From TrEMBL:
UniProt keyword list: Membrane, Transmembrane, Transmembrane helix
Gene Ontology molecular function, alphabetical: metallopeptidase activity
Source species of the chain: Candidatus Roizmanbacteria bacterium RIFCSPHIGHO2_01_FULL_39_12b
Signal peptide: none
GO terms under biological process: polysaccharide catabolic process
Transmembrane annotation, as ranges: 7-28
Keyword set includes Transmembrane: yes
Keyword Cytoplasm: no
InterPro entries for the chain: Dockerin_dom_sf, MetalloPept_cat_dom_sf
Name this polypeptide is given: Dockerin domain-containing protein
Length: 847
């Protein structure tokens, strides 16, 4: 028990009083030689809320205090009656009016030397024991001196006697008894009913460790008297200790109060001065004036949160939390803001902020700590100033800037919208392999013609071939190669056929096809078409042929470092690894073995000399976007005849090199017998009809798109034995030269040697179309959970500034992870994406 209430006022009021009487505590022997003392003691009877009990509430005569000596002299009449103030022996009656309080004050008390430091007890007399019981004692010094109170006072002592007061000078104390109403209080308690419970208690916190409590008075509570009855407020902490308490009058004009820790401490069981993190409960009740009758408690709770110090910084490699879970939580956020570049172009800048959660919610609630937050430079938006995409452009670059252009050809798709999903599936599946840096050697192009525009002039020659088998039999190589000439394709074409229940199939070099739900087998089929890999699963038959496949060995000793495992297609051939994309089902994986990777590298880097890049070749040829088209017929004996020859406004298709059998070689010669261009082409197509062994099928019709030279004089074609099979003298033909394309811009091919660039032809030279947007969206779902969220973009942060291929966040495919990838991911935040459905390989034995 402790209170400083009122003591300042008491001291002030007694200051002018000078008369002296004998004090109640001490037997004083006045002597001129004795030094005089200040002595001040206040005796009180208080209720548990520390309010001083009104004398009328006690209702007894002879109510007051006497010390041991006085009690011995008169056990019934107190020497210090309550309600009085004795100042220097001059009693002032009723000064305290109705309060159970007696104060003895003396400025010049003479205290005999032998009395000093002796102890004495004080008794309470006249307490109405029918109404009140003593529940405790208290004594506190009102000055710093802290002299006079008993040592080790038992605050729970219920005796009428307080023992151990010290006789001394400079005593300034308050002491007394705490009383509570007796249980057998005969007064009826009208408040002990739910109708008297205060309504809607609210608890909140403010500075200076104040707890604000508001409530509504119970209008239905009969007998409740304003400005007489009380509202009792208690604040409890999580340990259920009362840490602040207060009583206020019931008043409909004032239904709220602050309880300040360390100050409002009427019923406190704990006395903290500071609010701590945690949940606090307020209890609000109605009580009568004496506190002997109370209503049930109305309660409510609230959390108090102390903002943590700024040293609580999460490690940088921790994933960013997706939300602010509590106010004050340390948070960091990486986000992108719109901005304007120095030359006034719209752009985006990436910002990193750290701070504290201002509220519960997403990371927009994260505050900004100047010391730790900043934004990067404003980067102009990609394609912001480009013209809109040209939907009529035949070739739409999806992604990539590599020199190996791969054409994705729709079959039976109605529109680019749907086709885009599957082009993305193909590219993603290729990227998921271990091609690594080689992935960046690709440029993926979508062919922009759709059913029913399809008229047999591109892709597969007709659809009757699809009806028989489970495989997509798109083996009209010549038709597909025509589309290559449209789009300057030098690497391969992949037909994606929207046909239910169809698997994949590769027909000959450079041309592959898959059922649209089998984009997962795109690496396998392109492995055939580009790297000329063999199947590593078993055809269940042997062969007398030598392999010739980079990943299959027919040799007696293993030709590559590492192991040779039985069966590579043919049962007498061997493969380099147990599992491979070129294998099936249980032996399928995304990792090409080393011989396969070497073959990919040779093909894509041109190291094998097989393919030349038309754009590279164009440095010595102004007509690179025109081609000499030859249509040859081959009979079963390998004789060639010319069916058609034209100069076309089409891109030439590379000849091959390094073929050792089933080929023709070709020379393009000027009038001075200089070879302008040479190469090989196959006399047979390798037709894969999986899971059967590939077959060599004679090319009865061969269509070549050769480069065109103004000074070309003749074309000579030889068989492998060096026999001339065809000699075409251009002088004998009257070839109409087509009008050069006035404007190549818009065909989807960036004709850089003709001056097309991002400025002169943004449509062709800066990929920006449905396919690309779709690709970016799907690629932003890095963890493939069909939703682009911060988990995806945080992967980008982990890879940020890394330079390598095969990084999952390289959304814009430039072999490095930078702000453009990250902002692409952020731009797609919240989007639901649908990845191309893929049938399980295990269920489908055919690749
Ligand atoms: Zn295959």
């Amino acid at each position: 028990m402790n209170s400083k209430r009122g003591d300042a006022g008491v001291v002030a009021l007694i200051a002018g009083l000078t008369a002296a009487i004998v004090g109640i505590f001490l037997n004083v022997k006045i002597s001129a030689s004795e030094p005089t003392c200040l002595y001040h003691a206040e005796a009180q009877v208080v209720r548990q809320d520390t309010s001083i009990l009104p004398i009328s509430e006690n209702g007894e005569e002879n109510y007051g205090v006497s010390n041991a000596n006085q009690l011995a002299a008169d056990p019934k009449v107190p020497a210090g009656p309550f309600g009085r103030f004795d100042d220097n022996g001059n009693q002032i009656n009723e000064y305290y009016e109705n309060l159970s309080m007696f104060t003895f004050h003396h400025d010049n008390l003479a205290l005999a030397e032998e009395e000093k430091n002796k102890t004495i007890s004080v008794n309470l007399l006249g307490l109405n024991s029918n109404k009140w019981k003593i529940v405790g004692q208290f004594c506190e010094s009102l000055r710093r001196d802290k002299v006079g109170c008993p040592d080790n006072l038992d605050q729970n002592n219920t005796d009428v006697k307080i023992d151990g007061f010290k006789k001394s000078c400079e005593v300034h104390i308050k002491y007394g008894w705490v009383v509570a109403p007796k249980n057998n209080d005969t007064e009826k308690c009208y408040f002990d009913t739910d109708s008297c419970k205060p309504k809607n208690p609210q608890i909140s916190f403010s500075g200076n460790n104040r707890v604000r409590v508001e409530w509504e008075n119970p209008a239905s509570c009969l007998n409740l008297t304003q400005l007489k009855d009380k509202i009792q407020i208690d604040i409890k902490n999580t340990s259920n200790d009362i840490i602040c308490s207060k009583n206020v009058d019931v008043s409909n004009n004032d239904t709220g109060t602050d309880c300040k820790l360390g100050r409002d401490i009427i019923r406190n069981t704990q006395r903290p001065e500071e609010l701590q993190n945690g949940e606090y409960t307020t209890l609000v009740r109605v009580a009568n004036e004496s506190g002997s009758c109370i209503s049930p408690d109305a309660t409510n709770k609230a959390n108090y949160i102390v903002v943590p110090p700024p040293t609580d910084i999460p490690p940088t490699n921790t994933p960013i939390p997706e939300k602010c879970e509590r106010v004050g939580q340390y948070c960091s956020d990486d986000y992108t803001e719109d901005c304007t570049t120095e030359d006034s172009k719209p752009g985006k800048k990436q910002c990193h902020k750290e701070g504290r959660c201002n509220d519960i919610g997403d990371l927009t609630k994260c505050g900004w700590d100047d010391q730790r937050s900043s934004c990067g430079a404003c980067i102009p938006n990609e394609g912001e100033n480009d013209p809109p995409p040209d939907p009529t452009g035949l070739c739409q670059t999806i992604i990539g800037t590599g020199k190996n252009r791969v054409l994705l050809i729709p079959y039976n798709f109605p529109s680019s919208d749907e086709f885009a999903t599957y082009t993305t599936g193909v590219i993603d599946n290729l990227r998921k392999t271990n091609l690594g840096d080689l992935y960046n050697e690709f440029t993926f192009v979508a062919y922009n013609k759709f059913f029913p525009v399809w008229n047999g002039q591109y892709g597969c020659n007709n659809d009757t071939n699809f009806s028989q088998d489970k495989v997509v039999k798109c083996d009209d190589v010549e038709a597909i190669r025509k589309t290559f000439a449209d789009c300057n394709i030098n690497s391969a074409g992949l037909v994606i056929a929207k046909l239910e229940g169809k698997y994949s199939f590769a027909a000959a070099a450079q041309v592959a096809s898959i059922g649209y739900k089998y984009t997962v087998s795109a690496p396998h089929e392109l492995g055939h078409a580009i790297a000329r890999l063999g199947d590593e699963y078993s055809f269940k038959q042997s062969t007398t042929e030598q392999s010739g496949k980079p990943n299959c060995s027919s040799a007696s000793s293993c030709p590559w470092s590492g192991e040779c495992i039985a069966v590579c297609g043919y049962t007498n051939w061997k493969r380099p690894s147990q599992k491979s994309p070129m294998n099936l089902n249980a032996n399928w994986s995304r990792e090409f073995n080393n011989p396969s990777l070497n073959a990919w590298r040779l093909a894509l880097n041109g190291g094998g000399g097989r393919l030349m890049n038309a754009l590279q070749r164009a440095t010595s040829n102004n007509n690179y976007n025109q081609s000499l088209y030859l249509k040859l017929r081959q009979n079963q004996r390998g004789e060639l005849s010319l069916e058609n020859m034209q100069i076309k406004n089409a891109y030439p298709i590379d000849l091959e090199a390094g073929l050792t059998k089933d080929y023709f070689s070709i020379k393009m010669i000027d009038s001075e017998a200089n070879v302008l261009h040479s190469g090989q082409f196959s006399s047979k197509n390798t037709v894969y009809s999986e899971p059967n062994p590939p077959r060599q099928v004679l090319r009865e019709m061969i269509e070549l798109h050769l480069p065109y030279f103004d000074n070309l004089a003749s074309v000579e074609i030889y068989n492998p034995d060096g026999q001339k099979k065809l000699d075409i003298d251009l002088d004998e033909f009257d070839l109409p030269t087509p009008t050069p394309r006035e404007n190549l811009c818009g065909n989807g091919v960036c004709d850089s040697t003709l001056g097309e660039n991002q400025n002169s032809c943004a449509v062709d030279c800066r990929p920006q179309n449905d396919y690309r947007n779709n690709y970016k969206e799907l690629s932003s779902d890095i963890n493939q959970d069909n939703r682009v969220n911060i988990l995806d973009c945080s992967i980008c942060l982990q890879q940020y500034k890394k330079k390598s291929s095969g990084l999952s966040c390289d959304i814009i495919n430039d072999s490095k992870i930078d702000v453009l990838d990250y902002t692409t991911c952020l731009n797609n935040l919240g989007k639901s994406v649908e990845h191309a459905p893929e049938e399980s390989l295990d269920d489908d034995p055919t690749l």
